[in-house]
Amino acid sequence: MNHLKHVAIIMDGNGRWGIKHKKSRNLGHKAGLNTVEKIIRSSVKNKVKYLTLYAFSTENWKRPTNEINFLFNLLNDFIDQKINDFIKNKIKLKIIGNINPFKNKLKKKLKKSEQLTKKNNKLQVNLALNYGSKFELINAFKKISKNKKNINVKNIEKNLYTSSIPDPDILIRTGNTNRLSNFLLWQIAYSEIFFEKKLWPDFNENDYNIILKKFRKTKRNYGNI
Ligand code: FPP
Asked: Is the CB of 11 under 6 A from ligand 1?
């Protein structure tokens, strides 16, 4: 049976769900937040150690301002409402991505939340915010060359946001779209990928458990036979 440590998720389909059920993309994001909470709870139950959620990509800035603002308000409220639960349930929060362009108040809140939860060890939730894999890799190469080090696997991994985090065992993408959208391209070299037809707000604990069960039964070869 495969040991499961790290699940990464591309939470796609909020916009379509919102239009279909509420005539508003933003309300789809709001509904998506309920699924985030469910999947965090379920990850703890399943003894997953790392859960990486793609919440905002470097490409998402192309969206209408109204939607971007809505997403950032949702993030702000999520932190306010959940930080005590994280502390109580020993969940560590880590941000991956470039939060430099964020408003100071939000930046501070995110940093403080990381600080408050940094000793927690039940589950680590990595929230990918203004994250893009190509940007991450370019920065890693730049740092290596600035420090006059060799370009090799060890040095590249040391300079990724995910240094000290094992690679994902599973990557899930909901929303019936089969692409990777610049997410963890280096780290998923050997991950098992599950494309899920359901839109993110419809994805539930049962769907998640089915995927985890399938993974546990998969034979992983890593290039061997
Ligand atoms: C992709 O769906 C989803 C996003 C770009 C945002 C993900 C955000 C959430 C799940 C809620 C906020 C989460 C946190 C942790 C604060 P889409 O909008 O691309 O959907 P579509 O493909 O149907 O248009």
From this structure: yes
Dump pLDDT digits (tens) for 8-50: 999 999 999 999 999 999 999 999 999 999 999 999 999 999 9
Q: pLDDT digits over 156-183, tens only?
A: 999 999 999 999 999 999 999 999 999 9
Q: What are phi and psi of 191, to 5 degrees?
A: -80, 150
pTM for this predicted structure: 0.96
* Mean pLDDT of all residues belonging to the chain: 97
Q: 12, 167, 169, 207: which one is catalytic?
A: 12
Q: Is 60 part of the annotated catalytic residue set?
A: yes
Distance CA 104, CA 70 (A): 17
| The pLDDT value given to residue 155 | 98
138-170 burial by CB neighbour count: b if 16+ within 10 A, else e?
eebeeebeeeeeeeeeeebbebbbbeebebbbb
Ligand 1 within 6 A of CB of 140: no
Q: Is the CB of 201 under 6 A from ligand 1?
A: no
The reply to whether ligand 1 has any atom less than 6 angstroms from the CB of 168 is: no
Closest-CA residue, ligand 1 atom 12, reads 33
- Residue 12 bears catalytic tag: yes
Query: Which structural domains are found in the chain, ordered by start?
Result: 6-132+169-217 (3.40.1180.10)
